Amino acid sequence: MGKSDNDVFCLKEERRVNGYSQISWRNQYHKVPNYIPEGATVQLHIVPDSSRPELRVWYKDELVTSVSLAPRRDSSTPASNPQMTESNQMEESSKSKE
Q1: pTM for the full model?
Q2: With contact defined as beta carbons under 8 Å apart, do 48 and 11 qualify?
């Protein structure tokens, strides 16, 4: 597989492969192919596309795996089912008593 625009316009970081053929990124472990030796350095290409974020792992200039990440939720967007806060619940109960 060759490099795409995603590999040009991305964030790049390096990680070392652990004894379980995994790398760690943002407190999560991601599997890499078993042929990559323990202790090998891989390059991560992080594609921060808000609709389809992706983690692409390269070893010796070859794309070895790609992981689709969950899209980040915009903090300015309210949750689809917001929970009532304690103060809102108290206001609602006092209105119903009136």
Answers
A1: 0.66
A2: yes
